[in-house]
């Protein structure tokens, strides 16, 4: 039985393709898709709102960015490219260059999303899981930040991502277009199993790759809070106050990193932790390719846990799926590429 792919535009469903690539990644804004249609006479226009469904499950809600019709002596081809609704935030610049000092992340989101089309502003998710010893994420989202000014040229995504990072959070969207401020899944039973054993029994992994990289990792990360004075040359000059540090015991030699954050007094500790976690996440990356787009009737899904047994790479544990690409290749047929990382990192 073949995987069922559907590009839905209004009441029209396109279900026959020569090739496609459908990307989802927690750490990359604006999940993207590209499809080559087998019916080049189909009427599709750039700017149309669309949905991508896989095996009758919605996997992306977005906008068609580009339509390319090509005519050669051998016939016609039609390719369609688009992104999810987060792409609107990536493309849209802020129009109000006003002071937003002491606004909370919730207030910033309400201010910047009010003119963005198709976004359900009432359904934005603010994760309530604990993000620190003293305060929950909910508390921190309501606490005012000292971001002072939105400058011309800054995009909606850029401002909201910076505000989320200051609270130790990701900013991403769900398949139905819902925006989320939160952390990746770190608990619960694994939803999937990936296996690559030497005897080949029960294997579902076609190919695996494990990369380790310390170029963007540090043994000590320090974030300094910055308080802005009225006169940069006088007694009220900008002063650096005590910040926060995190150490990474996995780095065996001394390699310090220092960064300033002028957001507020809460941000340094959260940002130091985030930078350390980001380094660990980017410094250890595991990727696999599997056949088809589902396992045991469930589409491969990001922000889910997977039990991994890879005897060749020496892995046996639970990992987070943070990236997924559905592909159709003329030679290989439908495959899924997965990116996995260690659980508990942002």
Walk me through what this model shows.
The protein is mainly beta and 346 residues long. The chain folds into four domains: 5-84, Phage tail proteins - horseshoe like beta roll fold, CATH 2.30.300; 88-182, Phage tail protein beta-alpha-beta fold (3-Layer(bab) Sandwich), CATH 3.55.50; 192-214 and 283-342, Baseplate protein-like domain - beta roll fold (Phage tail proteins - horseshoe like beta roll fold), CATH 2.30.300; 220-278, no CATH class. The protein is 14% helix and 42% strand. It has five helices and 21 strands. The strands form four sheets. Strands 1, 2, 3, 4, 5, 6, 7, 11, 12, 16, 19, 20 and 21 form a 13-stranded mixed beta sheet that branches. It has a three-stranded mixed beta sheet with strand order 8-10-9. Strand 19 and strand 20 form a beta hairpin. Residues 129-134 and 230-237 have low confidence and may be disordered.
């Amino acid at each position: 039985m073949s995987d069922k792919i559907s590009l839905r535009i209004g009441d029209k469903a396109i279900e026959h393709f020569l090739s496609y690539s459908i990307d989802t990644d927690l750490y990359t804004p604006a999940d993207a898709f590209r499809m080559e249609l087998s019916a080049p006479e189909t009427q599709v226009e750039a700017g149309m709102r669309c949905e991508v469904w896989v095996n009758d499950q919605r996997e992306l809600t977005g906008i068609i960015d580009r339509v390319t019709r090509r005519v050669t002596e051998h016939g016609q081809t039609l390719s369609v490219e688009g992104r999810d609704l987060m792409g609107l935030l990536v493309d849209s610049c802020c129009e109000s260059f006003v002071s937003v000092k002491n606004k909370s992340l919730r207030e910033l989101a309400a201010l910047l999303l009010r003119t963005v089309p198709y976004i359900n502003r009432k359904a934005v998710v603010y994760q309530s899981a604990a993000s620190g010893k003293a305060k929950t994420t909910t508390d921190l989202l309501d606490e005012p930040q000292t971001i002072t000014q939105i400058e011309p040229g800054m995009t909606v995504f850029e401002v909201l991502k910076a505000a989320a990072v200051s609270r130790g959070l990701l900013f991403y969207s769900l398949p139905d277009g819902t925006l989320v401020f939160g952390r990746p899944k770190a608990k619960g039973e694994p939803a999937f199993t990936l296996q690559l054993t030497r005897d080949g029994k029960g294997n579902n992994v076609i190919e695996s790759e494990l990369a380790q990289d310390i170029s963007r990792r540090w043994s000590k990360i320090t974030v300094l809070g910055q308080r802005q004075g009225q006169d940069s040359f006088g007694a009220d000059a900008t002063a650096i106050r005590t910040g926060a540090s995190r150490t990474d015991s996995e780095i065996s030699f001394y390699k310090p990193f220092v960064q300033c954050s002028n957001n507020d007094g809460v941000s340094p500790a959260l940002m130091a932790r985030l930078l350390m976690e980001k380094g660990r996440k980017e410094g250890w990356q595991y990727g696999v390719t599997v056949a088809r787009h589902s396992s045991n009737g469930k589409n491969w899904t990001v922000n889910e846990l997977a039990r991994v047994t890879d005897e060749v790479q020496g892995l046996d544990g639970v990992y987070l799926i943070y990236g997924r690409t559905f592909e159709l290749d003329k030679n290989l047929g439908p495959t899924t590429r997965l990116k996995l990382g260690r659980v508990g990192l942002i």
